[in-house]
Design brief:
heterotrimer, A mainly alpha (about 300), B alpha/beta (about 325), C alpha/beta (about 325), A: about 300 residues, mainly alpha, MetI-like fold, about 75% helix, flat, B: about 325 residues, alpha/beta, 8-stranded mixed β-sheet, 4-stranded antiparallel β-sheet
Amino acid sequence: MLRFLTIRIGRAMITIALVVTFAFIVLRMSGDPAQIIMGPEAPPEVIAAFRKAWGLDDPIWLQYFHYFGAILQGELGRSMRDGRSAIELVAERIPVTLALTLPALAIKIGLGIPAGIYAALHRGSLADRVVMMLSVAGFTIPSFVLGLTLVLIFAVKLGWLPSGGQDSWRHAILPVITLVIGGAAVLARFTRSAMLEVLGQPFIRTASAKGVPWRDVIVGHALPNAAIPTVTIVGFMIGTLIAGAVVVESVFSWPGVGRLLVVAVANRDLAVVQCILLLVAATMVTSNLIVDFLYGFLDPRLRQNAGKAS
Amino acid sequence: MFDAASVMVPSTQFTLSGLTVSFDGVTVLHGVDLSIGRGEALGLVGESGSGKSVTWLAALGLLPAKARVSGSARLDGTELVGASPETLDKVRGGRVAMIFQDPTSALNPVLKVGTQIGEALSLHRGLSGAAIRAEAKRLFDLVGIPDAERRLSAYPHEFSGGQNQRVMIAMALAGKPDILVADEPTTALDITIQAQILDLINSVRREMGMALVLISHDLGVIAETCDRVAVMYAGRIVEEAPAARLFAEPRHPYARGLLHSLPPLGGVRRKLVSIPGVVPDPRALPKGCAFAPRCTHVSDACLGASPTLRSPEAGRRLACVLEPENTDQRQFEAA
Amino acid sequence: MSATLLTAADLSRTYGSRRGLFGAITKVRAVNRVSFSIGAGETLGIVGESGSGKSTMGRMALGLEPPDEGEVRFIGQPIPPSGTPAWRTQRARMQMIYQDPLGALDRRLPVITQVQEPLDIHQLGDSANRPQRAQEMLARVGLSVEQMGRYPHELSGGQRQRVVLARALMTRPDFLVCDEPVSALDVSIQAQVVNLLVELQSEFSLAMLFISHDLRVVRQVSTRVAVMYLGDFVEEGDADDLFAEPLHPYTRALVSAAPVTQRMPGHQRIVLKGEPPNPANRPGGCSFHPRCPLALARCKVEAPTLVPVDQGSGRRVACHLVEPSMSTSNRAA
C-alpha cells in the first residue's frame, strides 16, 4: 500500500510539473506581457524598465529556472498589474467560486445519481425516457447558451432574479442552476449505464435466487458495484470545483477564480495565470488521487497485492 | 395433459404445470409439465435455447420483468407464479436454492464471501453476529474449503473457479433447502474439478435428503447424477424417463440423436450420427413438431399439431406421434 | 508412421506474470521441454485442463509465439520468425482454427468474400476463378449458396465454424492447428463439425494439432493423443489405446472422471484431490505429485521424463511408477 501511495503521489507531482511547464511555455510564446500591460502607447523606456523589473529580459531558460525554483519555495510571484501577491489574489477568489460550485456539485450528485438509478431500474419506462431526453439536452446545450437563456427568461422577461453580480444569495441561483443542469445530466447518464451493466451481471440473479428482497439487492449488491464507474465522474467533477466555472462566472459576472483567470489571461498577467493553473492542476491531480483510493476502497480486486493471492 | 401417476414421483413436492414463458411476444417455453419428488434427483437436458434454464428461472420468479410467465409452479401447495415478492423471497434460498454456471461471476465481486453467505444465513435462519460466522465456517468445512476461518474474509477473485462453486454450494445450503436447482454447475470447470463438484453435490444431497434439479447440456453429467431425466427441445419436454432407461433406450428421435452425437470414449470409432440442421429460432418455430425438420423419421403426421406428452409405458413420457420402431437401438452402445 | 511434417524439439515457453498491481514479476513456465512430431495426414490431439499450456503449444507450433528454448521444424525447415515475409508464405501452408468463429471473422463482410480473401492475399490461382473456388469450398463444408452471401452474425455458431474451416482450407494447407474448435457448440452441432473435420482431414490429407479439454472429441478426431499437465507432456500414445488403457495416474483420473451415460459395473471414479497448482508455483519433482494418489517419496524430488514404455505402440509416459518394461497386462489396477 505504501508503495502504491508513493507511486501515485510521485506521478501526481510529475503531472503538476508538466502542467506548470506547459503553462510557462504557452504564455511566454503568446505575446509580450510588458507591451500588453503597459499599453500600446507606452514609451519604449517604460517598457524596458518593466521588462527589467520582471526579469523578462533574462534568457527564457533562466526565467523558467527562476520561476520553477520560486514555485518550489511556494513563491508564485506578484501580479504584474497591481503588484499584489498572486497567491493572495487567487486565494481571495476561491471562496467566491466555491460558493457557486460546492452547492452545484451537491445538487448535481443529489439529482443526477438518483435520476440515473431510477432510470436504470425502470428501463424503457416513461420516466426513463424523460430522464434520458433531459440528460441529452442537459449536456449538449453549452453552458453559455444555457446561462444566457436563463438570464433572458428569469431576469429580463420575468424579472424574478438578478442577471449578474454577487450581492446576495439570490444572485447565485441562476449560475448554480446553469452549472447543475449540465453536470447532473452527465451523472445521470453515467449512473444509468453503470447500473444497467451491473443489473445484468449474474451475481444480481444469485442475490435474488438467495432470497434477498429486491430493494436490498439494489442497495446491497448493485449500488456498490455501480459506484465504481460513477466515482470516476464525481472525481472529475471535484477536480473542476475551482476552475470549472469560467464560462458561467463570465456570463453572470461572478467575481470568482474563473473571472480572474479570464482577466489575467487577457492581460498576460503571468504570475496570476500560472498560479491559477497550478491550483487547477493540483485540484485535478488531488481528485484523481482521491478517486484512485476510492477505487481501492470500493473494488477489492484492485486492492490485491503481492503475496495475498491464494 | 399431465399424468402424474404414470411417472411415479415419490410424494411430489414441486409441480410445474403448463408453465409458459414469452419474451416480447415470442414464446420460449410452451407449457411445461414436470414434477419433482422429495429427495429426488431430476435431470433436465437439452441444448441452448431448449428452455431448460428458463423453466426454473420462471418457476422461481427470477426472469427479468419483461418476461410473461403463465401456468403454475407449486411448491407443496404454494403457488409461485404471480406470488408476492415476500413469498418468493422466502422460498428462494430457503426451500429452493440455486447455483449457476459460472461461479466466479455469480458471486458479488465487491463483497467478502463470508458476507455473501451470511446474508443467506440471516435471511433464512435468522442468525446474526457470531452465530453467522460459526455457521458459515461449518458450511465452508462441509463443502471442503480448507482454512475456512480465514477464507471467509476473502473475496471471490481470490478463489479458483472450483472453489467459488464450493462457495456457491455453501451459500445454497445456508437456507437448508429441500430442493437444489443446479444450472450447469460444472460446465465452466475443468474435468477433474467437475468430478469433485459433482461428488460434493451428490454427497451433500444424500446427507441432507435434498432433492436436486440438475440442468445440463452434458448427457454424461446428467446420467451419473440423476434418477430421472427430462429431455427438452425448443421449449418443450420431448421425453422423460428414469435415467437408466432413458440412456439405455431413448425413444424420442431427438433424445436418440443427442445420445448418438456424443463421441464414445471407448470402442470402435465411427462417424458420429449427428442431427442435421440447427435448433429452430423461437420466433419462427416450424408448424407441428418443432423437431420435424431435423427428424429422420418425419412423416405427415408430424406437421399438424405439436405432439403432446403422453405415457407409452409406466414411468416414461414421450412427445412424438411416430413412436418409431426401435430399429436403430443397436447403433447405440455403452459410451 | 508417414513422412514427418512437423517436429517440435524441447519446446519451452516462459511468461513473466505480475501478481496484483505492483507485485513482483514471477516466471510462469507455460510449456516445459515438450517434444513431439506430427506426420503428414496425422492428427495429434492434445488434452489438458486450463493452464496446462496446451494453447501456448498450439501457437508455438504455428510460429505465432516464439519458444524460449527448443525449435519447431516444418518439413525439415525451422519456422521463420513471426511477421516476416517468409513466415507469411509459410503460413499459407499452416492454418489455425480458434474456438470463437465470430471473433475470427470480419463482421462487415459477407462470408464468401472472406473465404476468397486468402487466395487474393497469397496470389493463388487465376483471379477470375477465385470466387468460384471459394464457393466450391463453402459448398464442401456444407453451406448453401444462399448462406454464402450472408454476414457472420446471420449464421449459426456451427455454420460460422464451417466458414472458418473453409477459409483455412483455401490455401490448401498441410497443417492445421485447432484450438478448442467445437467447445462452444451444442452437442448436436458439435457432432456435425467433428464429422466434417474428420472428413476434411482425410480428403485434404491434413495434419492436425487438435487441442481440446474434451476427451471424447479428441479421441474422435485424433490418431495420437498427448496429455498435458502444468506444461508437461505426461503421456502420449495412440488415441484408442491411450483412452482404453491410460497409464499415467493423471490420465487415468481424467479418463475415469469423464462423465459417461452408461457406467460399466464396478467402475470406480477417481476423483483427484485439490486443484492444479498455479503454473507460477510448479511443485518440485513430478509436477503432479501433490494430487497424485500413488505418489512416492521419489516423486517429490525427481521429475520423471517422458520415456517410451512399449516400443510396439509408441506409448510414452512420464511417471516413476510406470516401468518402461511394463506391459499392459500386469499394470497396477
